[in-house]
Structure formats: C-alpha cells, structure tokens
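Could you help me review a protein record that somebody else here produced? Here is the record exactly as it was handed to me:
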Amino acid sequence: MKQTQQKTSKNDTAPWMKWAYVGVALLVAVAMVGTYLAPMFEKKQTAQIGNTAVIDYTILSEDGRPLITTDQNLAASEYEKGNNYIILTQGLEMPVGGQVSGENIAQIPIVYSAITGFSEFGLLGFETNAISVGLVGMQAGETRTISFSYGANDLEINMSEEYVDGLDLNSTEIAEGDLIALGLTTSPDISPDNETNETSPLRFGEVIDKTDDSLVVKYRYGSARVTLNGITG
C-alpha cells in the first residue's frame, strides 16, 4: 500500500509572510516618520537674561525706512531704488537683557556706505537697551520688531545757517523729510566739524522743520527688526 504524501501548499505560509512583511514595512514607516518629525518637536533655544545673542538686524526710521542693515539683499534693493542713505553692516553679539546709560554711544563698523568720511555708525544706549531687552524670550530663528523709546529726550537739534554750511550742505536745496549725515559725539551732540568725521560715528538726521535761516533735525530712530541667529553663554 503506497503512502501518499500530503503536499504542503506554498500558500499556507504566505499570509503569515505577508503579515510579517507588512509589519516590518509599518515599523520602517513609523521609524521614518519619527525621524522626520523629531526636529519639529525639538525645543528651540530661548534667550534668557545673561545669555549672549548673535543677531542680524535692520534699523528703521520712524516712518519705516530702512537705514542700517545686515541684509545684503535689502541694502542692494534700496540702492537700486536710489536710496543712498542706507548702511550695510555685520551681525552683532550682544548681552540679553543688558542695560547701559541711554546716552552711551555704541560705535559699530560700517561694511559699506555710499556716504564717505565715516568708518562707523552710532547707536545710542536707548536703542541698544531696547534691543537687548527685546531679545528676552526670543527663540533661535525668530524675528521680532522692537520699538525704540527715548523718554523725555526728543533728540532734536536746531541748526543755524552757519552750522549747516559747516556740514557742506546747501540749505536752500534741503527740504523737510530729507535725511542728512551727521557726526555723533559723546555729549551726545551733533558735530558740524567735518574734520571730526573720521572719529565720530555716523548718525542719520531727518529735517522736520525749516525756516529761512535754520533747520530743525531729529536724530532718533523708530525701531529695529531683529533676527536671533543663535545663543551663546
């Protein structure tokens, strides 16, 4: 009597193999999703008092005109528009939450400016304090617009016709709203003496009033658009 061998069908184990393959594929897919999502859930650095922040920034006038920037593309765009009153500079490292005297002058190197005779521009303590305090709580990669406040200081100067002549400016051609380049001294007063321009940092002033024999110029700024690139210390 011949024994008959039962043939095991290949399909008997196939469903299990399929489930195994599906299971492995699912695990791989979950692992890949986890890898892609991990950066989304990483906690970003947050600036705290005592840290040192690495920033890019643009200083804006009270009417929103860019005056000083670390953004090369913005500077190039402004020059193409005919705005020669914009300074290109480099990023800064500054303490988070630090405070100095409001009259303090930070002298910062100029990378490029169409205005000759200056190697640095000046930011007042009012402005650096505002930026420093505004950095508190910012996360790396965040951009924030920080307004400036000068308290009771109007930061205006009344220029006589002789004073304007000392700046090599033609008062008859100047109109309200025009920007002029000034040398900032540690008083802080604006210097009309061109011989001091090499050591005095550049400060932009805006003509806000004009008479036959004088100009009133304000040299306060409006705000800073700040991007926190990183935190050290």
